[in-house]
Amino acid sequence: MTLDVARLMTAQIPPGRQTPTARDAILYAISVGYAGQIEPPEDLSPIYEPVLKPVPTYANVLAPSVGGWFRESGIDVAKVVHAEQRLTLHAEIPIGAELEGRSRMLSVVDRGAGKGMFASFERQIFGPDGQPVATIVHTNACRGDGGCGGAGEPPEPLARAPERRPDQEVDVAIPHMAATLYRLNGDLNPLHIDPVFAAKGGFQRPILHGLCTFGYAGYAISLVAPAWGLGALAAIAARFSAPFFPGETLRTELWNEGAKIRFRCRSVERDVIVLDSGAASLSRVEPADQRLIR
């Protein structure tokens, strides 16, 4: 089936609905490091019901769209990988209230026949009062669909990390069972647990979910911004540049710019950058600045 760009861009994407529970929010927080790696965490708010505050990157897994709209446009889904993620928080994530995720296509950027294309779509999450909770822009690299023609207006490119040495580095040992735990948030892709399936995709073993690595980056940022607390992030964005494997050490390199932080992440053991062009805004910025990072 050949990709129909017009059909993809005009797809009526079914909304997603979800009522997150305290257990859901705690499971997510544990799956991206907030329970502490070696010592117990000083701040229990991400993992203890009486003081629970969902961590910001939890929004990435909430109220996803349903149905096969992406596949039905003719995209070769076997060759699709996650390319970029951008998240902006507008309000604290409510627990015990139904959330609705409304998605729409933003753009198709055609790199040419044999080179693939980038497809970006936006998901807005609304609370029961109709007010926005989060905005997510998700970009897929569709490696088998080049030469299809472009459409829409793509997100502006993310800025590369500064050339100077990072101001801080945070190393986190990622458990071997990290993908096994993270998949319980809803992403059941066998690429992250089945060695046979991973080998068919060209990987020596199952890789970690990109959004799990993204969540660990958010956790690392919270460790260097204690004045803002663990729920500090107002926005975070990054480009996925290489696979990361459970059991490796994730080094987050950070450049401090006041209430803005630039970052990238690498596998220490392989010295490979796995998240690049990262940027985060902390929650004490003025409301006008709490927008999608460009």
In short:
With about 290 residues, the chain is an alpha+beta fold. About 15% of the residues lie in helices and about 30% in strands. Strands 1, 2, 3, 4, 5, 6, 7, 8, 9, 10 and 11 form an eleven-stranded antiparallel β-sheet that branches.
Structure description:
There is one protein chain. The chain is of the alpha+beta class and 294 residues long. Helices cover 15% and strands 31% of the residues. Strand 3 and strand 4 (117-126) form a beta hairpin. Strands 1, 2, 3, 4, 5, 6, 7, 8, 9, 10 and 11 form an 11-stranded antiparallel beta sheet that branches. 39% of the residues are buried. The chain has 6 helices and 11 strands.
Distance between the termini: 35 Å
Percent range for helical residues? 10-25%
Shape: globular
Low-confidence stretches: 284-294
- SSE arrangement, N to C: HEHHEEEEEEHHHEEEE
Number of helices: 6
Report the portion of residues in β strands: 25-35%
Tell me the major beta sheet.
Answer: 11 strands, antiparallel
